[in-house]
Amino acid sequence: MPIVLRPLEESATKYGQRAAAAAPDYEKGIKNPRRDQNAAALAAKPAYDSGVQDAISRDAFSRGLRKSSTAEWQTRASTLGMQRYPSGVQAGKGKWGTGFAPYAQVLTSLALPAKGPRGSAQNFEISRAVGTALAEKRKSGGS
């Protein structure tokens, strides 16, 4: 006997309504987690590593990309993304500043070679010096 389901549109509508109504429960869960999120994430590292290796062996990344399209991405980004981007940036500006500060310190403390004529190898040395210094900072942990 086959499984009888509600029409897909009806289920999708119900899903959207129930998810919107669950916002207070979502907030409550964030404020009062059953266990520490960071500790649980760190403890899950072996499972994460195993899952990533499994995904690589199944070529899951490419297979997932083949199920989407540029048009779909553009539609979602231009609707949801445009709504969420400004508030997300505002909410994250303090953390961005804290995260960028060590790199700003590297940039402002560099002793760069003198600028040469446009297109000269001397100018490429400036780019190399900046890139090398930022890469070394990133590899050292960024702070």
What does this structure look like?
By secondary structure, the protein is an all-alpha fold. It has a domain at 8-67. It has helices spanning 8-21, 23-31, 37-43, 45-57, 60-66, 70-109, 121-139. α6 (70-109) crosses α7 (121-139). The radius of gyration is 24 Å and the shape is elongated.
List unreliable stretches of 5+ residues: none
Shape: elongated
Helix content: over 70%
Mean pLDDT reading: 91
Task: Report the structural category.
Answer: mainly alpha
Layout of helices and strands:
Elements: H1 8-21, H2 23-31, H3 37-43, H4 45-57, H5 60-66, H6 70-109, H7 121-139
Helix pairs in contact: 6-7
List key phrases describing it:
elongated; single chain; mainly alpha; 143 residues
What does this entry show, briefly?
The protein is mainly alpha-helical. The protein has helices at about 10-20, 25-30, 35-45, 45-55, 60-65, 70-110, 120-140. About 75% of the residues lie in helices and about 0% in strands.
